[in-house]
Specification:
Layout: H1 2-12, H2 20-32, E1 37-42, E2 46-52, E3 61-67, H3 94-110, E4 117-123, H4 131-137, E5 148-155, E6 163-165, E7 168-171, E8 173-182, E9 186-187, H5 198-215, E10 222-231, E11 238-239, E12 242-251, H6 254-274, E13 278-287, E14 290-292, H7 294-306, E15 311-313, H8 325-328, E16 332-339, H9 358-373
This protein binds zinc ion (2 copies).
């Protein structure tokens, strides 16, 4: 059943912020399960189902998150359920995460929560680091705001079904930097008549790459990766008049990221000024670090232990980023990995496909967490 659902969602693959058909499919499916409420259009195409407990009075509200979006990566292999959107496919396994949370919805439709409520959130635009922020800023989220938030991500390169957990920082903070430099073109025979950004681009690449070395201590893990640079045009007769440099900054901690952001910006301004260039810059795709709360981690670990799942506690945070950190900034929560197999193709690789055998494990784990936070009646109370 859930394998069929996962494959259907795989076919629907849509890019971040454009998850219209996927959201419609999910909300129709949820409506069919008759929850207390289905909210659509949260932060764009976000969808949430609310299941309330049967005991009167306030109780904890728990939110489980799945992601709606796919990636601009074509399918690397042929399957019967291949993406129907050209050049776009589910190479991060968000189809699987949605199927897991839909399985939890089926379970909640069949039995009653004791006290409190459960929100199943299908969030848009995770891959571009925007979706969680859009959801949180949407006024519809005011009524859904939970006391606890939980989310998982399948992780290739780890033993199948293993729970990969960490207290404190789980995934790093990161941000993209775009810098445009503008001088003036001239004849290539007379570069001194123009203002070429060539030296500035060379200096910027070196200066950005050196930031972690000279601006952070050994324990303050950080990286600056220059990901793109372009200078003028391929015309032998022209000395260039404009350029662009892009880099990704990351750090385990948000305060370290803020510090290296400031440093990168002041260095680039100094370089542009020295070369008499106009500079425009912007920060894009900002992800806060995902910080797990100890009490939430304990719920997850107790649930995993109860199910006999292997738990691997990570010594260091993951270097990649997740927009789940937007929730855990203000809400107690935990985010963890679910091993997709040591040899499974990596996330975002064209040959990646979500391993269906993980669906039941993911859903059981969420069920056990909910049992601990809100509790279940033995049978459906109507
Ligand atoms: Zn991804
Ligand atoms: Zn993902």
């Amino acid at each position: 059943m859930n394998v069929t659902l996962r494959k259907k969602l795989h076919e629907l693959a849509e890019l971040s912020g454009r998850e219209k058909k996927t959201a419609e499919f999910v909300s129709n499916y949820l409506q069919g399960l008759d929850p207390d409420e289905v909210v659509t259009g949260i932060g764009g195409h976000g969808v949430a189902a609310v299941f309330n407990g049967v005991e009167p009075g306030p109780g904890p509200r728990v939110l489980l998150r799945a992601e709606l979006d796919a990636l601009p990566i074509p399918e690397g292999a042929e399957f019967s359920y291949a993406s129907k959107t050209p050049g776009v496919s589910h190479k991060c396994g968000h189809d699987g995460h949605m199927a897991i949370v839909l399985a939890v919805a089926e379970m909640l439709a069949a039995r009653s929560i004791k006290k409190g409520s459960v929100v199943l959130l299908f969030q848009p635009a995770e891959e571009i680091g925007q979706g969680a922020g859009w959801v949180i800023e949407d006024e519809k989220f005011e009524d859904l705001k939970p006391d606890w938030v939980f989310g998982l991500h399948n992780l290739p390169g780890f033993p199948f079904g293993q729970v990969i957990m960490r207290r404190g920082v789980f995934a790093s903070a990161s941000v993209g930097l775009k810098v445009k430099l503008e001088g003036a073109t001239s004849h290539a025979a007379e570069p001194h008549q123009g203002r070429s950004p060539a030296q500035a681009v060379a200096q910027a690449i070196q200066a950005l790459s050196a930031v972690p070395q000279f601006q952070t201590a050994l324990h303050e893990a950080s990286k600056v990766t220059v990901i793109h640079a372009r200078l003028g045009a391929p015309a032998f007769g022209t000395s260039p008049g404009e350029a662009e440099v892009m880099a990704t900054l990351r750090a385990h901690r948000g305060d370290v990221l803020d510090r290296i952001k400031d440093k990168c910006m002041s260095m680039l301004q100094a370089i542009a000024m020295a070369e008499n260039l106009k500079m425009e810059s912007s920060w894009v795709e900002e992800f806060p670090s995902t910080v797990n709360h100890d009490d939430a981690v304990e719920y997850v670990e107790a649930a995993a232990e109860h199910l006999g799942m292997d738990i691997a506690r990570q010594d260091v945070p993951f270097p990649w980023s997740e927009d789940f950190g937007n929730y855990t900034k203000n809400i107690r929560g935990a985010f963890w990995g679910l091993g997709a197999g040591l040899k499974h193709p990596a996330l975002h690789h064209p040959n990646y496909d979500f391993p269906d055998d993980l669906l039941d494990r993911g859903a059981s784990l969420f069920e056990e967490i909910l049992r601990r936070v809100v509790g279940f009646e033995d049978r459906k109370v109507t």
